[in-house]
């Protein structure tokens, strides 16, 4: 009963944070004549409630519409011409060049336009550490764990700010309440100092974190040792990456005292630290029983072919319940709440619910083109695949079943693709297993061409602007018919497959192509039904030697991560740290000609967004008002 009570307090306190309650409101849980801090830490239960407030900001950071890794990757685009107010659309506007230092979107510095003030979360963490000795009934073991959890949270919140803003104010401790106005005007630390501090906090926390969560029903989401080690691996890989490691674009970036905030010197040793951290994380994860998800789902599944079982396995590796998914390293402790934006209308009854379940998370053609052919190489490299005529049409038949509807005309680009393509993307003519039909012979297929098609354009607020849906984000047990019934799941923050590819990336930067690098890429590819990198490129690529050089293998690893982690709020961060986001957003974002009813006219790419992105956009601006309030701050370059 106590654990259930704690679980509901987490949820309620998280909701209060999301609604923007001030720190004073959080602590204002006692009569006015009682010292608030002393009351809050008067016993173990109250102190645990405060620990949950330290966690609560994490939920908002990883809510996808507020996560730059999701909205700023262009993997999914949103119309932004609507006045529907389903959610704050500020993040999706970023690719349209609407960011400014007077109106910062996803402002996690101040807490505005879809962001929360992370500095308030850091203040709460410091309050927790300052008062952890007060509860008289807190056991020594719990105290060590809670301190470790709070240090992890401090590290993660600082890391989130560094990824966004670069050189950061390090909130190592709170100022005393009587500090002067000048004393509280902190200065930005260099990027290297920031990463060093974050890693030092994790190193302090890791020994005292539990190896696993014992009470899975109530404590999923709380930090374990393998979570912390995996986050440390990601942080060190980020620190080693081109955005932060000897970036010439920021060579002259200094504060008002002349201190360099970015090192202009590339440090190859950072990649070795990253590789070591990745290996340590993998070792701990595997020791605790984590492994790639390879078991086909069985709940309600009827007669299904082996090929479709493989597709369902790939789709289910993120939508499976956490306690049944051995691949999940870390996920948030509430469900992914946007499935009504990811599922197309496939029944006539669903059309009547279009205004509330719009299916408007739209996947651009460029994202669909990322996925390999069934030979395991990029579509523009496969010498057996007709890249030139990919936008012409072809009829589905028995050879393309059960992935494409037999007798339905669709784009040639949809044929002979890798299984992750069919698991991740819903397309016109594509089979959509689930939605209440769980037998292969009765499965729905998507009909998207023109306004008279079930999934086609309806009202302004119920139109998928590209003609592709992020199927990966839809649980096969969710149903969109005369009502919308959601089977919830926890969207991963980290999965083991991502950690494997992170290790391959770091190791390639240290050693170049080696058997060990190939092996970790190939683990992920094998689960997707593909041959290894060397065999696939040797047999099918127009560039067979590509995996044999560090540069070539780097490009392969980058594409492999973008495919494997597609729609999981990872690619936006990856493209940023690789300094590849500018290249991705230099091209028009395209979708199909969605108002046309015939296949020949529908499959003509149309530009839907002309993105705006420059060097300055790799870092968030600090708002003009903050620069006025704290004259020790310097604006980020090019803003």
UniProtKB/TrEMBL annotation:
Subcellular location: Cell outer membrane
Ranges for domain SusD-like N-terminal: 117-225
Protein name (record): RagB/SusD family nutrient uptake outer membrane protein
Keyword Disulfide bond: no
Record family assignment: Belongs to the SusD family.
One matching Pfam family: SusD-like_3
Assigned keywords, A-Z: Cell outer membrane, Membrane, Signal
Domain called RagB/SusD: residue spans: 326-639
InterPro entries recorded: SusD-like_N, SusD_RagB_dom, TPR-like_helical_dom_sf
Organism: Mucilaginibacter rubeus
GO CC, one annotated term: cell outer membrane
Gene3D superfamilies: 1.25.40.390
């Amino acid at each position: 009963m106590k654990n259930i009570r704690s679980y509901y307090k987490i949820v309620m306190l998280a909701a209060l944070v999301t609604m923007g309650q001030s720190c004073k409101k959080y602590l204002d849980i006692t009569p006015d004549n009682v010292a608030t801090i002393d009351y809050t830490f008067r016993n173990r239960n109250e102190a645990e409630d405060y620990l949950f407030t330290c966690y609560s900001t994490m939920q908002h950071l990883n809510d996808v519409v507020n996560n730059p890794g999701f909205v700023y990757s262009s993997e999914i685009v949103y119309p932004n011409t609507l006045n529907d107010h389903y959610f704050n659309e500020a993040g999706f506007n970023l690719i349209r060049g609407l960011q400014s230092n007077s109106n910062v979107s996803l402002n996690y510095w101040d807490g505005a336009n879809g962001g929360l003030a992370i500095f308030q979360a850091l203040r709460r963490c410091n309050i927790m550490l300052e008062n952890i000795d007060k509860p008289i009934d807190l056991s020594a073991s719990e105290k060590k764990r809670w301190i470790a959890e709070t240090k992890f949270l401090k590290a993660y919140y600082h890391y989130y700010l560094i990824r966004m803003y670069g050189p950061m104010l390090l909130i190592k401790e709170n100022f005393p309440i009587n500090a002067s106005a000048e004393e509280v005007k902190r200065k930005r630390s260099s990027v290297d100092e920031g990463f060093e501090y974050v890693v030092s906090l994790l190193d302090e926390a890791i020994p005292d974190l539990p190896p696993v969560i014992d009470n899975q029903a109530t404590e999923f989401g709380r930090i374990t040792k393998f979570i912390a080690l995996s986050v440390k691996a990601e942080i060190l890989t980020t620190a080693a990456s081109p955005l932060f490691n000897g970036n010439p674009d920021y060579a002259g970036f200094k504060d008002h005292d002349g201190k360099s905030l970015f090192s202009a010197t590339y440090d190859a040793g950072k990649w070795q630290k990253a590789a070591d951290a990745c290996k340590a994380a993998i070792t701990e994860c595997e020791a605790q029983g984590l492994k790639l998800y390879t078991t086909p789902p069985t709940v309600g599944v009827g007669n299904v072919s082996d090929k479709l079982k493989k597709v369902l396995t790939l789709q289910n590796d993120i939508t499976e319940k956490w306690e049944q998914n051995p691949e999940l390293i870390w996920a948030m402790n509430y469900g992914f709440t946007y499935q009504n934006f990811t599922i197309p209308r496939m029944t006539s009854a669903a059309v009547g619910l279009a205004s509330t379940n719009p299916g408007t998370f739209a996947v651009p053609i460029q994202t669909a083109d990322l996925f390999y052919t069934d030979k395991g190489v990029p579509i523009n490299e496969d010498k057996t695949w007709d890249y030139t005529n990919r936008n012409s049409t072809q009829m589905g038949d028995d050879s393309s079943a059960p992935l494409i509807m037999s007798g339905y005309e669709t784009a040639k680009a949809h044929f002979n693709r890798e299984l992750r393509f069919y698991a991740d993307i819903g397309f016109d003519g594509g089979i959509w297993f689930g939605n209440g039909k769980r037998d292969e012979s009765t499965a729905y297929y998507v009909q998207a061409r023109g306004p008279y098609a079930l999934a086609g354009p309806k009202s302004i607020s119920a139109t998928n602007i590209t003609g592709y849906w992020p199927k990966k984000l839809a649980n096969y047990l969710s149903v969109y018919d005369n009502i919308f019934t959601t089977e919830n799941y926890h969207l991963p923050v980290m999965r083991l497959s991502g950690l494997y590819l992170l290790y391959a990336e770091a190791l390639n930067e240290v050693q170049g192509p080696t058997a060990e690098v190939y092996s970790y890429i190939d683990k992920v590819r094998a689960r997707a039904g593909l041959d290894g990198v060397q065999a696939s490129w040797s047999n099918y690529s127009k560039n067979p030697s590509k995996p044999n050089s560090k540069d070539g293998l780097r490009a392969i690893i980058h594409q492999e991560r973008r495919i494997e982690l597609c729609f999981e709020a990872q690619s936006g961060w990856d493209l940023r740290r690789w300094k590849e986001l500018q290249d991705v957003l230099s091209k028009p974002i395209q979708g199909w000609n969605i108002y046309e009813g015939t296949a020949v006219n529908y499959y003509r790419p149309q530009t839907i967004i002309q993105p705006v992105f420059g060097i300055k956009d790799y870092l968030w601006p600090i708002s003009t008002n903050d620069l006025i309030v704290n004259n020790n701050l310097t604006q980020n370059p090019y803003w």
